[in-house]
Amino acid sequence: MQKLFEDLEGRGLIKQSTIEFDRLKPLLNGLPISVYAGFDPTKSSLHVGHLIPIMILSHMQRAGHRPICVVGGGTALIGDPSGRDNMREMLTEEKIQENLRGIKSQLSRFIDFSDEKALLVNNYDWLGFENYIDFIRKIGPHFTVNRMLTADCFKIRMEKGLSFLEFNYMILQAYDFYTLFKKYECILQVGGDDQWSNIIAGVELIRRIDGEEAYGMTNPLLTRSDGKKMGKTEGGAVWLDPLMTSPFEYYQFWRNTADDDVIKFLKIYTYIPLDEIEKYSSSKGEELNRIKELLAYEATKIVHGQSEAEKARESAVNIFKKGSTEGAPSISMSGIEVEGKQLVDICVNAELFESKSEARRMISQGGLSLNGIKVDDPAKIIVRRDIINGSLDLKKGKKIFLTIKLN
Asked: What is the CATH number of domain 4-219?
């Protein structure tokens, strides 16, 4: 069995570390340690962009280490400025608590929290009860403003105006690491490469206060081969919540992976052994399509379970190989909302398009089909004969399907 460091490195999951790799290797391959990653609950669901640190924690647990998932109920009240050109939305405590509930259940699909094999903690439990004067007297002397202002996480925000509120974020995340180090003997933090400055701050805070050594490791910030941000589509983020992105849509997101990304994504987003993935590296044509189906199935199975992955795969076969829309994503609308209404309005209300102008443009370019027939009139009105078996079957482009069922 391949050891953890070699497996993570072979999967492209290690970018840099606060220690040399020849020291990181025995740390990962050795005795069990506690390792953490943080997830701020800015939405009620995690998305594909969160998956890399989650997969790293999952691999860590499989190798015998103890993951600690920090859900940032405290830091979300501040907002991480990393990689942002504007300030994040200020969330209420009530909204954050609502988001927390959704995220906790999603993390449990990747990580086993039973019998304290892993921990799920909320940093509001320690940040929310700190007296500000006591906190800043205890932690503030260990940070210099000059040093903080050189951090990559602040550079973009400095151009637009960095608020003092956001400036606190690095200190709070560093304090998270210090708290976990003291309370749970956590000695390693993992995160995206955009968190490098924040991770270093935590490592240095532990050294300055306690004189002890802790470590940080980052993963690459992934983009697709077309340069677009991973986890984003024309319709927005690809969510792990099945009510926000259906299992079929999730499956199709992975099935539509570009040829140049398939092997890379198999390594990162599945548990398939590296030696097996290597056998696929020279695949082309129809064989490559089968590997894309394997990627889609395995990625969907991890997030939504085997049953939903099989349903999604079967639906894709029905739609793309048999011409049936059975299993396509569907929504319900009333007859009043459909009959006698412009198709453009219906599509926007169904969130198939973001705007009427986008819908009209797609129709003018021949990119929308109704019941298998291309729509050529942007002013098309839905009449009774368009409603077949109580529904409308829509196809946007070549790969996006939606059935509107009349209730």
From this structure: 3.40.50.620
